[in-house]
Amino acid sequence: MPESKGRDHKSTTYTPPPRSKATEPNPTWWAPVFITLLVLGLLWIVVYYVTAYKYPIEAIGVWNLGIGFALLMGGFIMTMRWR
Q1: Three-class secondary structure of residue 53 per DSSP
Q2: Topologically, how does it sit relative to the membrane (predicted)?
Q3: N or C: where does the chain have the smaller number of CB atoms within 10 Å of the terminal CB?
Q4: What is the pLDDT of residues 30-54, one digit of tens each?
Q5: Residues 6 or more apart from 41 whose CB is under 8 A from it?
Q6: pTM of the model
Q7: What is the pLDDT of residues 13-31, one digit of tens each?
Q8: Contact criterion met (CB below 8 Å) for 40 and 32
Q9: Which residues contact residue 20 at a Cβ distance below 8 angstroms, ignoring those fewer than 6 apart?
Q10: How far, in Å, are 28, 35, 37 from residue 67 at the CA level?
Q11: CA 52 centroid distance within chain
């Protein structure tokens, strides 16, 4: 039966790799911006429905929903990167 080589006891101690940029905390403006995007997107959609499709921008019609959902998605994407 072959003999195992075992561990080399002469090796140096383990040193962890340097911290990556992904583990650093977010800047101070991060949370206020994503909260603002979420609230603004929600308000955009609510105003569009409550005003019978006349506001915020009557000329673009249903695209108001697209703008509202884009703002919401921007806020949700930022929440996923929040540390």
Answers
A1: coil
A2: Multi-pass membrane protein
A3: N
A4: 999 999 999 999 999 999 999 999 9
A5: 68, 69, 70, 71, 72, 73, 74, 75
A6: 0.70
A7: 888 888 776 678 899 999 9
A8: no
A9: none
A10: 26, 16, 11
A11: 32
